[in-house]
Amino acid sequence: MRLNELSKMSFSWALVGLLTVFSCDAFAVIAAKSTVLLRADNALNRMRMDPKGRFLAYIGDNGLGLSVLDLKTKNIFQVTDAQVGASFVWSPDGFRLFYREQVLDAIGNLKTMVKAFDCALVQSVLLDEMPTASGFLTFDPRDLRLQLLSPKGVRTKRIYFPGERLARWQVAQRIELGKWLATQQGMLWLTQGGFAMRRIEDDSSGIESFDISPTGDSVVWATNQGRVYLSQNGKPATLIANGRDPRWHPDEPKIVFAGARMVGNKIIGYDLRLADLQGAGPFLNATQYSDERWPQWQPKSDRIIYTIDKTTDAFLMDVTP
Prior knowledge:
With 321 residues, the protein is mainly beta.
């Protein structure tokens, strides 16, 4: 399956253009320009770009299924049609997508399977399975471990990648204060080798999406009530803002997310916004009739790929000052 390239002329209505800096909702708006990148055959929900910038993973409209879009060839591969949700993450080499399926077995009980999709071979392999539901699949970039919470405790699996940056002895001797583990109910901080765990307090509405920093010591997440929180090394969470879909910059301590536009206590829409570790930062655009969602940093750049909710279009935004 291939995508149709979109021309700037055909979709001039979608160009945000250069904006004059002004005040809106008490936050300035950066002069940022967006262009149409491509059009898919389905809405690009929960987009997640691989660390090398070639593949884009996303799920379907109804929260089921997982697909991978090759930005170079414009081919789309369906990875699974099962329930995946927020449980998928890219490997450091950018060619493997790890994901957690939750499916019903032959007698109607929910079971969990952890798999890896190889983009070069275009096939998946089973890594682990359990006859129960589980928490979100979480990947620690410091020691290259996949882990998730099951009724019997934390399941973990060390993954070895060709050309990985850390030698095994470096991984074994690396000092860390703890690990992050995401569940549907909240974010957990694990210490003492995983035997002690503590929930980081937020609004208690459950986790909608999350992202662990490239250094592995910090995490940012959005709750089902639409609030973005950040925590470092298990410390109490900082409320960043009302919003969704936070993503860490690959090289700098800042995030991009879908920031909520508020009228009183009511959310009227979402525009892209930057924030530092304390929550300060500008909006990147200001639109009235569309919700910009699921922003992803392009590797080694200050460009962002994002989509507009309930559309099949992907856009490219340059946020360089």
